[in-house]
Amino acid sequence: MLEVYMDLKFIVISDDLTGANGISGFMSRFCNSIVINYDNSFINDVASLPYNCVVVNTKSRMIDGVSAKNCVNYVLGLFNNGRYRFGKRIDSALRGNIEDEILPFIERGFIIVITDTIPEYGRYTTNGFTVINNSRDSILTRFSRVTPIIINDINKLIDIKNTTGKVFIIDSRSHDDLRKIANFITRNQNIVPVDPLYLIAYTAQQHAALIHQEQSRLIMNKVTRRIAFVIGSTQEMTIKQINYAKSHGFYVIGLYDLIKTNYAVDNDWIIIYFDYMRDRGLLTQELVKYLMNFDAIVLSGGETANFIFELSGGLFIESIADIMPLIGVGIIKGGILDGKLIVTKGGFIGKEDTYVIIRDFLLGLSAKNKNR
Q1: How far is C-alpha 316 from the chain's CA centre?
Q2: Where does the pLDDT of residue 158 fall: very low under 50, low under 70, confident under 90, or very high at 90 and above?
């Protein structure tokens, strides 16, 4: 028998804004999806809003495990009447408080199903490991208080149906694998999908189809000419992306140098770069006011995105598209950047040409822009 309530919203809990916006952007293909911070009072109105997918950002990537667990407990406490399905997004590089943020689900008797596969990035899951570019990263070592059970055969998922409070790590390599796992999860109310993107998104997609949720696809019909890239990540790939963008017409300036000009730089495609951990004291309302001069804002780096969005006073992000896996596009609602397009990207995501691809998408020059 199908164990599904017919009026459920799908709630995803993410530990940072770039991941939240990335998965919400993909889910906007099949449901009305938004991103909201867990501590924004507007979250209390979610139940009455016309969005059937809600991604909640707990901003807990960089905090201690006890506080991270409390954040997730708080969100689950808000949506505790049994009329919600849940997904738990984890970082694509397995950073953060993974076990602490899964424990609140386990303590409520949920079954946890984890996989860590993004085929486009050559990333797959096998025998409890994430494999990418011939390097292996253990998912098992992220756990010390619970012992995950490895399942190598998707067909054996049926064996977990009657368990409670267990964690399972499932092998997967392809989108077909991810859809098969999602199909099983969708039909079992007490299972929570855990991954960076596709397992959760496909579960939400199948759930939406199963209960016949209506979706009003938002069209990206804004005229986009001026784009500001605010980059607080210092990852090696990020530096390569900045240099590539500079060679393709972007104006690149350090945040400190921009401040010295009194924010007088006028360029249609500007990259403002800095080291978030070192320079976050330089992120002020003056920078946010400067961003008001642009049609679209690209935030790169999870903590950078969290900080700038909060500094702007935004209430939530209404998702409208994704450019590539984990690079989401939305519209800021509320605050001084209300109505601006926002794109977010993690420091590890993409190749050298990623910022150029984002620019071309926003300008309507890319074949990947399906909204124009």
Answers
A1: 13
A2: confident
Q: Is the pTM of this model over 0.90?
A: yes
Query: Domain 227-363 sits in which CATH superfamily?
Result: Four-carbon acid sugar kinase, nucleotide binding domain (3.40.980.20)
Q: Would you mind telling me the total number of residues written for the chain in this entry?
A: 372
Write out the two tokens for 323.
């450019």
Average pLDDT over residues 336-343: 98
How many helices and strands in the chain, by DSSP H and E? Answer: 11, 18
Q: What is the tens place of the pLDDT at every residue in 188-213?
A: 889 999 999 999 999 999 988 876 55
For residue range 340-372, what is the model confidence (pLDDT) as tens digits?
Answer: 999 999 877 889 999 999 999 999 987 555 443
Confidence band for 2, pLDDT divided at 50, 70 and 90: very low
Residue-wise DSSP of 108-159? TT-EEEE---BGGGTEEEETTEEEETTEEEESGGG-SSS--EEE--GGGGGG
Question: What is Dmax (Cα atoms) for the chain?
Answer: 66
Which 8-state DSSP code applies to residue 13?
E
Match 């390599």 to its residue by tokens.
173
Residues 104 and 65: their CA atoms lie apart, in Å, by: 12
pLDDT at res. 108: 95
Q: What is the rounded CA–CA span in Å between residue 354 and residue 360?
A: 10
How far apart are the C-alpha atoms of 29 and 43, rounded to whole Å? 23
Torsion of CA 72, 99, 13, 105, to 10 degrees: -70
> Span 9-210: which CATH code?
3.40.50.10840
